[in-house]
Amino acid sequence: MKVIDLSMPIVDGMDVYPGDPEVNVKITHTFESHSWELRQLSMGSHTGTHMDAPSHMHPGAATLDDLPLERFFGPSRLVRLEETNWPEGRGLFFNDSVGMDCFDRLAALLPPFVGGDLSEDLERALLGINIVTYTGLQSMERLPVGTDFMFYGFPLRLVSGDGSPVRAVAVVYE
């Protein structure tokens, strides 16, 4: 078994999408002053490696607390744009930039989630048909091609959340 971390590290001042809140990570308690260490976090809900709920781009659509936990993990596959047969019943991930030209294929398969470098219009369209999206993933080149893996990308339990940073992990059984 191989565990692959697909998550970006969250660090003070990291790059964010233009207009999103800055990331601030500050030590507020130290061992010397309080006998424990504590950090204060300030960031947007779409910071770093994150998932998007349908409500992110569609008013009144499903929020994080509307979605069952099963929507955030499951069998998955890294697929290539040129492949003719993308598998059904799995999360689908792309190592290439993906645009609206893939929407009809994805809509026909209705994967529980899609991840990768998705164009904004594709992301909006997928969320519009209740397909959860994952963006800000890294180390995708380490995923096997043509072989299923288990993906886990649990969001924070934000009430009425439109999205959340996640610790995205792929588990490959060899």
TrEMBL record:
Q: Name one GO molecular function term.
A: arylformamidase activity
Q: Sorted alphabetically, which Gene3D superfamilies does this protein's record hold?
A: Putative cyclase
- Please give a single GO biological process term from the UniProt record: L-tryptophan catabolic process to kynurenine
Task: Specify the domain of life of the species encoding this protein.
Answer: Bacteria
Write down what this protein is called: Cyclase
Lineage per the UniProt record: Bacteria, Bacillati, Bacillota, Bacilli, Bacillales
